[in-house]
Design brief:
By secondary structure, the chain is α/β, with parallel strands linked by helices. It has one domain: Dehydroquinase, class II (Rossmann fold, 3-Layer(aba) Sandwich), CATH 3.40.50. Helix content is 31%, strand content 20%. It contains 5 helices and 5 strands; from the N terminus they run E-H-H-E-H-E-H-E-E-H. Helix 3 runs parallel beside helix 4. The mean pLDDT is 91. Its EC number is 4.2.1.10. Catalyzes a trans-dehydration via an enolate intermediate.
């Protein structure tokens, strides 16, 4: 059984209430229940923090023992060299995801300090971005 973890960054604890026109009406807890039942052969753990250092600590903690990490560092994607360095320093493959299409938003959101160190990047498919990332870790 594959063991994956979804790590979400700042403000993603507000999914379902924050800017529903961009992020939808579903809370991440509700969505996690849905995908856990959809991917029964995968263990999916979850961690969310609004604090950059906590995200880095979690990457260090799980970055050598999990089969995959799905990381939505949110706004830290565009500002955190530290998170990029943490991803670079671990062995577990990482897929960077974003709910919105970051390339259709403000110019500063077009830069990722994480992407150069990842297996891939999925942007703009809403919460389905996470499902696509999970599928990338499942052999066909």
């Amino acid at each position: 059984m594959k063991k994956l973890i979804i790590i979400n960054g700042p403000n993603l604890n507000l999914l379902g209430v924050r800017e529903p026109e961009i992020y939808g009406n579903l809370s991440f807890t509700e969505f996690l229940d849905e995908i856990s039942s959809k991917f029964k052969d995968v263990t999916i753990d979850y961690f969310q923090s609004n604090i950059e250092g906590e995200l880095i600590n979690k990457l260090h903690e799980v970055g050598f023992s999990y089969d995959g990490i799905i990381l939505n560092a949110a706004a830290y994607t565009h500002t955190s060299v530290g998170i990029g360095d943490a991803v670079s320093g671990i062995k577990t493959p990482v897929v960077e995801v974003h709910i919105s299409n970051t390339f259709s938003r403000e110019d500063f959101r077009h830069q990722s300090y994480i992407a150069p160190h990842t297996k891939g990047v999925i942007v703009g498919f809403g919460l389905q971005s996470y499902e696509l990332a999970i599928q990338s870790f499942i052999p066909s």
